[in-house]
Amino acid sequence: MRAHPDRAAALGLLKKYNEEPFHIQHGLTVEGVMRWYANRLGYGEDADFWAAVGLLHDVDFEKWPEEHCKKAPELLAEIGCGEELLHAVCSHGYGLCSDVEPVHEMEKVLFAADELTGLIGAAARMRPSKSCQDMEVSSLKKKFKDKKFAAGCSRDVIRQGAERLGWELDELLEKTLQAQSACEDAVNAEMAAL
Fold this sequence. Notes:
The protein is globular, with a radius of gyration of 15 Å. The chain is 63% helix and 0% strand. The model has no long low-confidence stretch (mean pLDDT 96). It is mostly helical. It has one domain.
């Protein structure tokens, strides 16, 4: 089992450096998606570690966008995060703002799913239900192909992420939509309690 920070400490750190509800919700969403993937891909004993990486991956982004993935290690040290967690967090910005390459399957999943959760979230907000739970993969694919929709979500990063994992793009879209649907209620409940 990989060492990971206590969840209360991790969430406390995220909230210390992120005040925007959007950024907190993104952290919670990626946390849930990473936990789902850990269990689905056979890393159940490390699900808490995968989840902690997801929760903390953007810890430095709101206050230090120019130093994203560079400031993170200093902040993560406040709660005693180990080298593995630091490497994982820094690797999700590979080729964009970091030269730390995603090596472990967990890091590749984070790299691939991070941007995609944003696209799924934006697509969900356009739906009458405001939910991704009733979204079809086909409608997600249409949104993915529409470059004007959620233009800030890099399609290139999502495509590269699927390639790094050795998956077809459709497989990544389908699994991440399932993962995000599975954790959506818990994320909404936690956001409502903030």
